[in-house]
Design goal:
Blueprint: H1 2-19, E1 25-31, H2 47-57, E2 61-67, H3 70-79, E3 85-89, H4 93-96, E4 99-101, E5 106-115, E6 132-136, H5 143-150, E7 155-159, H6 162-170, E8 177-180, H7 181-190, H8 196-199, E9 200-202, E10 208-217, H9 223-243, H10 251-259
Parallel strand pairs: 1-2, 1-3, 6-7
Antiparallel strand pairs: 3-10, 4-10, 5-8, 5-9, 5-10
Helix pairs in contact: 2-9
């Protein structure tokens, strides 16, 4: 009799723990340095990391991030062994062979940075022929740009880091450099000499607008369920703005906090 009562109490306790989130599962995702959107040094690991964590949290899933150089971050995610996936990746046909993609975490635009004293304007890729263009190694700037570079229609000089490219613009070693707008200004503010903030600007026309996703390896158990959970949670963050929910962060508020620099260390 007492044994039966104890078993019932344990069962009820387990149900209560489950309802209060004690049965929360964990997903392990790789990450990397791309401030202000992702960084081990930033609050909540940057706004993109924060959005991912909060979206999964609404579905009772805790995210554990591992920070790696980007090449390794991708390989670890693609393998799907220790790490289920990664965050902040664009979609293409090659990647879709081995990976599942969530709905976009965020959409960002690449723009051309240049010196304020350099007269620069463009409308088509053809207009870029006369300029020396900096670019970061291993980074795609969209199909049209990449094809023009491959065909040598435009003169592109690749360098390892965005920071190095912006320094080359500052030093007149290249004329223009395309970068995600907020990332470019974050580097200018934190990595370049103070004078750079008054010397560099961006052209308003976007070179490319791209979506960034959570990727989940097709080797990961329950991969489709993780994608479904994230998509559902992301929609809840967006709906929280209209519903004025106190329990779920508002997606737009997270983005505006990022623009105001609230994620900076």
């Amino acid at each position: 009799m007492y044994s039966s009562i104890i078993k019932k109490l344990v069962f009820v306790t387990l149900i209560i723990f489950s309802l209060n989130g004690y049965s929360e599962s964990v997903v392990k995702l790789t990450n990397g340095e791309w401030p202000p959107y992702m960084s081990e040094k930033y609050k909540h690991y940057g706004v993109m990391s924060h959005i991912v964590s909060e979206a999964f949290k609404t579905q009772g899933i805790k995210v554990e991030f591992g920070f790696f150089p980007w090449k390794r971050a991708f390989k670890e995610a693609e393998a799907g062994k220790e790490w289920a996936g990664s965050i902040g990746w664009g979609k293409n046909a090659e990647r879709e062979e081995t990976l599942l993609f969530t709905d976009p975490i965020i959409e960002l635009k690449d723009v051309f940075f240049h010196r304020k004293d350099f007269q620069f304007d463009w409308n088509t890729i053809e207009d870029l022929k006369k300029y020396k263009i900096g670019a970061s190694t291993g980074y795609s700037y969209g199909k049209e740009f990449d094809e023009a570079e491959e065909n040598k229609t435009i003169k592109v000089y690749r360098t390892a880091k965005d920071e190095n490219n912006l320094k080359k613009v500052l030093d007149n070693k290249v004329d223009i450099f395309p970068a995600t707008m907020e990332v470019g200004y974050e580097i200018i503010a934190n990595k370049l000499p103070p004078a750079a903030q008054n010397m560099l600007t961006n052209h308003p026309k976007p070179l490319d607008v791209r979506a960034y996703h959570v990727i989940i390896s097709k080797n990961t158990a329950d991969g489709p369920k993780l994608v479904e959970a994230f998509n559902k949670g992301l929609q809840m963050l967006k709906d929280a703005c209209k519903n004025e929910s106190k329990d779920t962060p508002c997606y737009e508020k997270l983005l505006s906090d990022n623009l105001e620099g609230k994620y900076r260390p």
